[in-house]
Amino acid sequence: MGTGELRYQSIESDMFVGRRGRLKRYLICSLQGFFPVLVQTGSSSLSVVYRTGAPHVGISGTLAVSNSNDGGKSWSDPVEVAPRYDDVRNPAYGVNNEGHLVLGYWEAKQHIYEEDQEGHGLKYVPAAAEDERYKVAAMFTVVSKDGGKSWSEPVSYTSKFLTLASPYGRIITSSDGTLYMSVYGTLREPVEGIKNACILVRSTDGGVTWGDESLVAMGFNETSYAFLPDGTLFAAARNDQRYSYISTLFSKDNGRTWSEPVQITRDYEHPADVTVLQSGKLLLTFGRRVRPYGCGALLSEDGGQTWNRNEEVLLAGDGAESLDVGYPSTVQIEDGTIITALYYASGSDAGGADYLKGWGKISCQAIHYREEQLRL
């Protein structure tokens, strides 16, 4: 017999009140396109780098570049940057003051593969922080002077803060022409409870050589940066917790010192890309690893101090099957069009649209919209 006491269980779940819209979407590539990083190369011209030749993890993978001269509607065939079978991945991409493309990447074969003892070739085996493999430099940078058709010889980079060092996202430029590249990885000097740290590395010669590192935050990895109109350096960093989310940080001294991180997205909303719009507002686009899978967005009108967090902006919610989706990268071209590139690893089903059925289960797509479409 019971005691007569009533018991209940409860959870919180999302509800939505708003208006529905329609956004144009264009195919960048099919059967490939992981981790895209989008950069603007002219008033309406764009370049994107993405992973090809293997899925999210795979020894045969490398990076490829495609270009668009019509504002991101049509894209050139991909040109591979590095040989396959080194698991080349995790790009950082930018444009220097001479208009040359600059690319950083991680050659994962050097750090997380070892020979299979049964003779089956290389197998994926992440190493402990003290592993001898980490003494080999696996981060490289290259420069292209012809729009990605050919690249300089790779230059290796060894971080003073990190052993496993991986680039990420868009390479940005300060007012004096210095390039800033986002890098994250395992600390050389381990800190209890900390898996990764994010740092900035700099180049004063157009991306040929890099150095002058500064530590941004510990306990974070994939981080996007942007210079605000007042010169403040803004960061949106993915934390290392199991249920990852994005936190924001600010620097008033070009990335030498940083504010304490503040969480702004919910769990499973990551990683992020940050874009300063022509209006001066700050746009944060981020992967949604909660249903509906795809891409969300937040706007800030005060340089990232506050956000429209109670307004759900769903740029894409048609990820079909898995959490392997997103990694948005966003630019705004001269005519005001905002373009967000993102990938789908397990299918895209925008309302069951027939035209998407030929795009393949894996694809990289470009969403086109304008700032006014982001507000109620």
What does this structure look like?
The chain has 376 residues and is an all-beta fold. It has one helix at residues 109-112; strands at 24-30, 34-40, 46-52, 62-68, 79-80, 88-95, 101-107, 113-115, 122-124, 139-144, 155-157, 162-173, 179-187, 197-203, 211-218, 220-227, 233-239, 246-251, 262-263, 269-276, 282-288, 294-300, 313-316, 325-332, 338-344, 363-369. It has an 8-stranded mixed beta sheet. It is globular. It starts with 23 loop residues before the first strand and ends in a 7-residue tail after the last strand.
Count of DSSP strands: 26
Low-pLDDT stretches are none
Tell me the span between the first and last alpha carbons: 54 Å
- pLDDT averaged residue by residue: 91
How much of the sequence lies in strands comes to 35-45%
List the helices and strands and how they pair.
Elements: E1 24-30, E2 34-40, E3 46-52, E4 62-68, E5 79-80, E6 88-95, E7 101-107, H1 109-112, E8 113-115, E9 122-124, E10 139-144, E11 155-157, E12 162-173, E13 179-187, E14 197-203, E15 211-218, E16 220-227, E17 233-239, E18 246-251, E19 262-263, E20 269-276, E21 282-288, E22 294-300, E23 313-316, E24 325-332, E25 338-344, E26 363-369
Parallel strand pairs: 6-12
Antiparallel strand pairs: 1-26, 2-3, 3-4, 4-5, 6-7, 7-10, 8-9, 10-11, 12-13, 13-14, 14-15, 16-17, 17-18, 18-19, 20-21, 21-22, 22-23, 24-25, 25-26
Q: Which descriptors would you attach to this protein?
A:
single chain, mainly beta, eight-stranded mixed beta sheet, four-stranded antiparallel beta sheet, 1 helix
